[in-house]
Amino acid sequence: MGRFISKRFDCLKEYVPGEQPQDRKYIKLNTNESPFPPSPYALRLARQAAGNLQLYSDPDCSLLTKTAADYYGVSDASVIFGNGSDELLDFAFAAFCDKDTPALFADITYGFYPVFAAKNGVPLEEIPLKEDLTVDLGDYKGKKGTVFIANPNAPTAIALPASEIEKLVAEDPGRLVVVDEAYVDFGGESVLPLIKKYDNLLVIQTFSKSRSLAGGRLGMGFACSDIINDLRKIKYSFNPYNVNAMTAAAGVGALLDVEYFRTNTEAIKKTRAWTVEAMGDIGFTCTDSKANFIFARHRKIPGSEIYLKLKERGILVRYFDKERLKPYVRITVGSVEEMRKLVGNLKEIVEEGS
Q1: Which of helix, strand or coil describes residue 124?
Q2: How many helices (H) and strands (E) does the chain have?
Q3: 229 and 205 Cβ atoms separated by less than 8 Å
Q4: In angstroms, rounded to a whole number, what is the distance separating the alpha carbons of residues 201 and 179?
Q5: What pLDDT does residue 197 have?
Q6: What's the predicted TM-score (pTM) here?
Q7: Please, which residues have CB within 8 angstroms of residue 203's CB and are 6 or more apart in sequence?
Q8: Domains of the chain by range and CATH?
């Protein structure tokens, strides 16, 4: 580290995003992006907004907020937008955790959570997943702190039913539960409607996956007005203009183009099902994915070997060098053509291993 950086960052281990190599053209199945381009309507509105880029963007994202509130059936005061869902999660760690209120989350989950905790100087407790990689919410019972749950979880792709999360929220009204629903549109069950019933629930979603706007950087949070106002206080102390005008406009278009959204999410789920079945035929076991990615292991070949051999063949998947995850690779559900190429190459790798 440089000699001027604050010593409070000495032990900070930054998040490592999926690799973006430039040495050749890859089939990119390592960062959970959508295989589909943004909605044509979203692109049209973004182009229109580009004509006024000499002006600051609306810090309140007024039109986008009203569109989202109408779409999800909540009040405008219950919605906030951020520069990707990561920014809103960071705001939540800053606003709702401190030395007396630790962050509680699974030991195997989104890798940014421990980074956010360290960056914001708050203690954390990692709750181990069960042997089958599922979250046992009973392990959180009676624990003090702010709970963060990725549902569906990453990188396992396994989802909890909304009824289980509601029990967790209801059992301790004095404890905030933050539910990260980045992948919920691919088969998960959202708890967003529960914000009308509970004032200790914050739901965060993203436009990166199901709405094809990963490069636009747009996330949204839903909660009672008090929680949203707390997040707005953090936002306005950091960057009031955190969502640029083109992205805000694209977000409106993405929400209004309901048919495009539904068609694409259904296509991804269908491709996911085909891929899981095809991989099962060659010796892979996959978790019950409710996300736009597959978490898979082979009965004979370690995850690191699968990752490296696929990369040699021009296909990128994600490998995590964490003890319980070493047998697995995480594979984004791409286009039908990309997944057929993936399975074909996996067959060859398995045959070579035999």
Answers
A1: strand
A2: 10, 12
A3: no
A4: 8
A5: 98
A6: 0.96
A7: 178, 179, 181, 190, 191, 192, 194, 195, 221, 222, 223
A8: 16-36+259-353 (3.90.1150.10), 40-256 (3.40.640.10)
